[in-house]
Amino acid sequence: MFWQALIDDFMSRMQLHAIPVRIQLWNGHAVDLAPEPPVVIRVKSLKGLRHVARASLDSLGQAYVEGHIDLEGKLLDLIDVATQLACHSGQAERNDNAESSSHSRELDRSAIQYHYDVSNAFYAQWLDPQMVYSCAYFHTRDDTLEAAQRQKIDHILTKIRLQPGQTLLDIGCGWGALAIRAASHYGAKVLGVTLSENQYEFARERIQREGLADRCEVRLLDYRDVSGKFDRITSVGMFEHVGLANLETYFRCIDEHLEDGGVVMNHGITSTDPWSRSSPWGGGDFIDRYVFPHGELPHISLVLQTMSAAGLEAADVENLRHHYALTLQHWAARFEAAGDSIRTLAGEERYRIWRIYLAGCAHAFTHEWVALHQVLGIKRGGARPGYPLPLTRDYMYVH
């Protein structure tokens, strides 16, 4: 029987690795790769068995999303088992070459709307009350997610030395949390831009409700279509959508919009692969297929190179990889706790996609597949004399 040949071949390749999983077939046949495994993969069809037998994170994820397999066990254990199966499948760890999409305005708009315009109610199930969808900043591992997200925003606004009366452009402003705090607590005049209609409507309503319309505005606008100059620019969790080939254009756009002596903070996910290749074992393929179409992650060396080529000097670089692992662990736990509500809101398929996406990303940051870098930059040259930042980093940690 064909299924028997598949399972025999699978066992011959996997049985030496003691992976803590049981493979339970639709016909009652089961194999354990380790004694008393805490994880069970229930294979519901021959198609599902094909996905498992030639495992990658993409193939296993696809089989789960499409209902060909079911998963039992703790979520982070499931991700660890899937990674071990993919690692020992005999496939290459990463794709040989990084590829970059064209990233036209239309392509970027459709990708952003696919990801963010699920529904605000969906994101509200597992984000903090301020709807901050980016890496938090933990002073201790016991910090609540709410506190850590507020600390992240303050960390950024302190780093750029935002002063009352200064103008701030927030590229990819999300649901408006940073823009609103910059206006309400730091006295800045803020413009936020997003391509997500849901985020735009949410942020605009919140700005009106908090009486900040004279100091804070959000526009449904591509960053390439912004006009004017600003004292400060922030970009948080946005440049992942820019594309490797477009990084220098992106940073040149920032440079053009910075006043002389201006300061920019770019906060974004980076690849730990020196050649900016996608996440290993097919994880990047799954994300591109189901979650972030056309997303591309540069290595920090490429970020610094393209920033410099665009006229920006990197003044400070901080890796927050461990902070994002903690953030994603919070998100994944909240997602699990709200599973029934999320299924009702978004449907079974999207629930499955995001369930393994969040836990998989927590695994990726924990195991150094990806990182998160805050890069503080200043506009080189210009007519304004002096250096816009203090001599030491001490100012960043005074609260």
What does this structure look like?
- There is one protein chain.
- The chain folds into 2 domains: 2-87, Nonspecific Lipid-transfer Protein, Chain A, CATH 3.30.1050; 105-397, Vaccinia Virus protein VP39 (Rossmann fold), CATH 3.40.50.150.
- The protein is elongated.
- The strands form 2 sheets. Strands 7-6-5-8-9-11-10 form a 7-stranded mixed beta sheet, with helices on both faces. The chain has a 4-stranded mixed beta sheet with strand order 2-1-3-4, with helices on one face.
- A hairpin with a 5-residue loop joins strand 1 (21-24) and strand 2 (30-32).
- With 399 residues, the chain is an alpha/beta fold.
- The chain has helices at residues 2-14, 46-53, 57-65, 75-87, 105-116, 120-124, 145-159, 177-186, 197-209, 247-257, 283-290, 300-309, 321-337, 339-346, 348-366, and strands at 21-24, 30-32, 39-43, 69-72, 167-171, 189-194, 216-220, 230-236, 258-271, 312-319, 370-379.
- It starts with a helix and ends in a 20-residue tail after the last strand.
- The longest helix has 19 residues, at 348-366.
- The protein contains 15 helices and 11 strands.
- The model has no long low-confidence stretch (mean pLDDT 92).
- It is 43% helix and 18% strand.
